[in-house]
Amino acid sequence: MSTFPTISEYWQHQGMSRRDFLQFCAMTAATMALPITMVSRIAAALENQARPATIWLNFQDCTGCTESMMRADAPSLERLLFDLISLDYHHTLQAAAGELAELARTQAMAANEGNYLLIVEGSIPMDHYATLAGRSGKDLLLEVAEGAQAIIAIGTCASYGGIARAYPNPTGAKSVGEWLTNDKPLINIPGCPPLPVAITGVIVHFLTFGEWPLLDNLQRPLAFFGRTVHDRCSRRAFYEKGLFASRFDDQGAKKGWCLYQLGCKGPFTYNACATTKWNDGVSFPMEAGHGCLGCSQPHFWDNDSFYRPLS
Ligand code: SF4
Ligand code: SF4
Ligand code: F3S
Fold first, then answer.
1. CA 116, CA 297: separation in Å to the nearest integer?
2. pLDDT for the residue numbered 294
3. Contacts 24+ apart (CB under 8 A), 204-212
């Protein structure tokens, strides 16, 4: 349990200045498409709230979702996710192992019954592949979900099944939403990996307003998944003019022409990559020269070749 009563006190201890703190609040409001007047409300909420107890479970995953949030090397929305929550249990990051690790989980669950957040990374095997502490993944998830106040499925594996669920799905993998049938709020944040700012933004929204942001019919936050990457793509003007690269190294590609004929799935992929960008706003796939693979859409591994043009 954290010894710092509020999130802002914890951040001060970590060396964050008041200026950085307000910048974080402003950036979060911007990424959530909230009016500028909400910055002070976000700041007040983070100044008064404790870091929410969080249990993070990994199932059939590559750990890429966790890793994408640990890569940033400067103060950023990405880096701050792990400062925003009190991470009481995480298979990959915790120092404890074996019985001590399981004790940490059960103690955190008991101390925060009904109030902790459950973050899930990876799909859930329905058969006895990938047991954890001698338990099947599906039983462990049911147990931990029971005492959670909300469940956040991060990444395409947890949201839709991802690569483990690709045909022929040998483990019978399911998404979190397919396996859990309780009435707890479920927020899907797909992407392979997902945008770190989407996860941070969703948690800040909850801490500020006491409710989860608006979701679409696939349980995704509309602020990040309300539009396709094609809508805001830097190559969009060339798409409209019918100027398409036909090879990754032709003159069109070098001039920034549209990558549609090289298999870009941007027109059918809902995500905020083109607006928030990656790596502290440096770039996103189409700006870097590669088409969108559709990594935040269901069944993207099963949708034929990544390089076959959409019809
Ligand atoms: Fe890895 Fe992608 Fe699955 Fe995340 S969604 S665990 S990055 S395969
Ligand atoms: Fe749309 Fe892809 Fe072309 Fe960008 S590169 S404009 S996302 S089809
Ligand atoms: Fe994924 Fe497409 Fe964004 S491949 S990272 S949703 S541009």
1. 28
2. 96
3. 204/28, 204/32, 204/42, 204/45, 204/46, 204/84, 205/32, 206/150, 207/7, 207/45, 207/46, 207/49, 207/52, 207/84, 208/38, 208/41, 208/42, 208/45, 208/46, 209/45, 212/150, 212/185, 212/187
Ligand 2 midpoint to CA 133 (Å): 45
Distance separating the N- and C-terminal Cα atoms of the chain = 53
Residue-wise pLDDT for 55-68, tens only, equals 999 999 999 999 88
Distance CA 258, CA 210 (A): 42
132 close to ligand 1 (CB < 6 Angstrom) = no
**Tokens coding 267:** 């027109």
Looking from the CA of residue 63, the nearest atom of ligand 1 is 6
Residue spans of alpha helices (H) in 122-225:
137-146, 155-160, 176-179, 196-209, 222-225
